[in-house]
Amino acid sequence: MKKLSRDFRSRLWTLKVQGLLGKPPAFDIDEIIGMFPLEERIYRWRCVEAWSMVIPWIGFPLAEFIKKCDPASKAKDVEFTTIFAPGQMPGQRTDILKWPYEEGLRMDEALHPLALTAVGMYGEVLPNQNGSPLRLVVPWKYGFKSAKSIVGIRFVENMPKGSWRRANPDEYGFYGNVNPEVSHPRWSQATERRIGEEDRRKTMMFNGYEAEVGRLYSGMNLKKFY
Ligand SMILES: Nc1nc2c(c(=O)[nH]1)N[C@H]1C(S)=C(S)[C@@H](COP(=O)(O)O)O[C@H]1N2
Ligand SMILES: [Mo]
Q1: pLDDT, tens digit (0-9, with 9 covering 90-100), for 181-203
Q2: Residue 212 in contact with residue 114, Cβ under 8 Å?
Q3: Domains defined for the chain, CATH in brackets
Q4: β-pairing, 51-61 with 124-125?
Q5: Do 56 and 118 meet the contact criterion of CB atoms below 8 Å apart?
Q6: 152-174 confidence digits (pLDDT tens)
Q7: Which of 146, 138, 124 is nearest to 207 (CA)?
Q8: Ligand whose nearest atom lies closest to the CA of 148
Q9: Top mutation candidate among 148, 150, 163 for ligand 1, by most atoms within 8 Å of CB
Q10: What is the DSSP string of the chain?
């Protein structure tokens, strides 16, 4: 495992932007990283399987990158495609998921200032196993929404499926918002285990970011749109 992640090649790396926009750009990864000032963001991270951590990421707001791409106004959702490299990632030679890993966000979620494009963590360049060279960090959603090793962004009109939702729609919704009141079909989401702690903590609505993101979902039935 260690050797596989150490040998993963995250250069040369191109990120293609497609879908509803004028001229589809393709960026070299280092060009993207140089386009925006990098900042550190310390976020709670909550896995759908009820463990959690606090992680210092380094990156830039996804919104800044999307604005550069200038999507058409009818683009309502954003789809993220990730690296397909079964030679380097043996898990992709199995069919536990349909590869490449895909995820999506509603455009207003993607444009929210808390949605981060991360290129580093703990003051270092992003380790390969955590999604080098570039990944999403969407701190109010379960971890599976944060696509790693992104190679493509597509602006679309219809809600993209996502790999987990395609594999198991009863367990993984499009939204994946952290919500202590909506149980996973096989376990409660009311509490979580912070890695390194004995006692469980209460899970917070939207992972503690309700004041910032709650308005994105006002009036929605969050049991139905989980
Ligand atoms: N490209 C890609 N991104 C991915 C995944 C994946 O399998 N491939 N797994 C997701 C899941 S299920 C989780 S929990 C997080 C894990 O992020 P971490 O490895 O930094 O802990 O990445 C998400 N992003
Ligand atoms: Mo996961």
Answers
A1: 999 999 999 999 999 999 999 99
A2: yes
A3: 2-168 (3.90.420.10)
A4: unpaired
A5: no
A6: 999 999 988 999 999 999 999 99
A7: 138
A8: 1
A9: 148
A10: -HHHHHH----S-EEEEEESBSS--EEEHHHHHHHS--EEEEEEEE-TTSEEEEEEEEEEEHHHHHHHH-B-TT--EEEEEE---TTT-GGGGS-SS-SSPEEEEEHHHHTSTT-EEEEEETTEEPPGGGTTT-EEE-TTB-GGGS--SEEEEEEESS----HHHHH-TTT--SS-B--TTS-BTTB--SEEEETT-SSPEEPPGGGGTHHHHGGGGTT--TTT--
Which ligand places an atom closest to the C-alpha of 101?
1
Residue 181 is encoded by which pair of tokens?
A: 């009141």
> What is the Å distance from ligand 1's center to 114 Cα?
19
Q: At 1, is the pLDDT very low, low, confident or very high (cuts 50, 70, 90)?
A: low
pLDDT tens column, 86-125: 999 999 999 999 999 999 999 999 999 999 999 999 999 9
The pTM assigned to this predicted structure is 0.97
